[in-house]
Amino acid sequence: MGAGEKIHLDANESFLPVPQKLLEEFQKAMGEIPFHRYPDPEARLVCQAFADHYGIPAENTAAGNGSDELITVLFSGFLEKGDAFATIEPDFSMYAVNGEIQEARHVAIPKGKDFTLDVDRTIEICNNEKVKLLIFSNPCNPTSLVLPREEVRRLVSGVKALVVLDEAYMDFSTESMLPEFQRYDNLVILRTCSKAIGMAALRLGFAVAGHPVIDAIKAVKSPYNVNAVTQALGTQVLNRKRLLKEALETILRSRDELRAGVEKIGRNYPGIFTLLPGETNFLAFVLENPQKLCEFLDQKGIVVRFTGGLVRVTCGTKEENAAFLKALEEYCGL
Ligand SMILES: *Cc1c(COP(=O)(O)O)cnc(C)c1O
């Protein structure tokens, strides 16, 4: 790392670079792209690779230019000006941004004091407010908390809205609804290649839903939304099961080491921060003066994210984690 370069633990990307061997396969795949032609509008090969990886039917998947694009597609396709959509705050900030662009009415349901999601209350508010679309992340960014599948089932069954379940971090947890999405006609699951899959630069996300919702998504998205390079390289990556499994294990190890290190500091300096018990590739801190910690870390060359009232720290390489832990300990000792 060159002088002046910062340690970025702020965007929840994977810290693992693409292995050399895979980079070589990328070059080969690139050489076979007919660049003078439009890409496959249905992105069939990459949808098939995604579907195979997660054990779901390819016909129920649609690809997007990142799951960010799919969020935009869902908001523009399923909401009209003045329609109500709900979020459970704090949550991923792009939901509210998309709602605003769509001039939809934002029903912002607050999470509980401990950042948990109250399913009964959410159902009640959504149905009372005639919410047409409910969107939330599970596990949640920024809280890192995961809602157990049983609770998700209850929520999806209880609301009259279309539920967009953003599982951007579900590779790090165990409560995915992918195995049972077909049981619900009001459920869309979003997944991304930007986090556990380690391909944030590729811009590749997927929507999974039963018919007719998935057909509506395909009809609304722009025809060539996923470019040929992303389709080709995404297919390469998603077909490398062993590599993905190893990468996931490495990230989980880093996450667990970082958590253990932070918990140890927490025991030595009680009362300075609380760590939420999450299942993601980042840790969420609750503390008195979050901005002060962020500024302190920034001066040490470590960039973290302050969002939704929490300090969010992505796990990194051994060296990056060590640098963060050293700085955190220093901060606690001030
Ligand atoms: C990172 C993230 C996304 C965006 O993923 P892309 O596929 O890179 O657009 C979506 N939702 C949540 C909750 C995220 O944290």
Name the features.
334 residues, alpha/beta, Aspartate Aminotransferase, domain 2, 41% helix, binds pyridoxal-5'-phosphate
Q: Can you walk through the features of this model?
A:
- The chain has 334 residues and is of the alpha/beta class.
- The protein has 2 domains: 7-16 and 242-332, Alpha-Beta Complex (Aspartate Aminotransferase, domain 1); 20-240, Type I PLP-dependent aspartate aminotransferase-like (Major domain) (Aspartate Aminotransferase, domain 2, 3-Layer(aba) Sandwich), CATH 3.40.640.10.
- The protein is built from 11 helices and 13 strands.
- The strands form 3 sheets. A 7-stranded mixed β-sheet has the order 2-8-7-6-5-3-4, sandwiched between helices.
- The structure holds pyridoxal-5'-phosphate (PLP).
- Residues 12, 66-68, 92, 137, 141, 166, 168, 192, 194, 200, 205 line the site of pyridoxal-5'-phosphate (PLP).
Question: Which helices and strands occur, and which strands form pairs?
Answer:
Layout: E1 7-8, H1 20-31, H2 44-54, E2 61-64, H3 66-78, E3 84-89, H4 94-101, E4 105-110, H5 119-128, E5 131-137, H6 149-158, E6 162-166, E7 187-192, E8 205-209, H7 213-220, H8 228-238, H9 241-268, E9 273-275, E10 282-287, H10 290-299, E11 302-303, E12 305-307, E13 310-314, H11 318-333
Parallel strand pairs: 1-11, 3-4, 3-5, 5-6, 6-7
Antiparallel strand pairs: 2-8, 7-8, 9-10, 10-13, 12-13
Helix pairs in contact: 1-8, 2-8, 3-4, 5-6, 9-11
The chain binds pyridoxal-5'-phosphate.
Pyridoxal-5'-phosphate (PLP) is lined by residues 12, 66-68, 92, 137, 141, 166, 168, 192, 194, 200, 205.
